[in-house]
Design brief:
alpha+beta, 4 strands, Curli_CsgE, single chain, 26% strand
């Protein structure tokens, strides 16, 4: 979901979506990009997966920096989603039951 409010935020959203590829086998999640504008600091963007905030960054209008920020955000969101899926699958498994884990 796009909850950006400025052209800078929308640019970040578009860059994120350009690099985003949904992970295979994962579904039932919502990614939200939220932006808040502060006249003193500029735009701050948050990315959340469902209710977990994964990424938070001050964003600027410079194109090269925006691409790097978007790539970094995609990497962090993918890592979070894979870790969350691994934990979810192991919680449903009785494999380590009785081992003290």
């Amino acid at each position: 979901m796009d909850k950006t409010i400025t052209p800078i935020g929308r640019h970040f959203y578009k860059e994120f979506m350009a690099y985003w590829t949904a992970p295979r086998g994962l579904s039932d999640y919502t990614i939200t990009i939220i932006e808040r504008f502060n006249p003193q600091w500029g735009s701050i963007a948050w990315i959340s997966v469902d209710d977990d905030i994964i990424y938070q960054q001050l964003i600027s209008s410079r194109r090269l920096i925006m691409e790097d920020l978007a790539k970094d955000a995609v990497r962090q969101v993918l890592q979070f989603m894979v870790k969350r899926e691994i934990i979810k699958r192991y919680k449903g498994s009785m494999d380590l039951e009785g081992d003290g884990y």
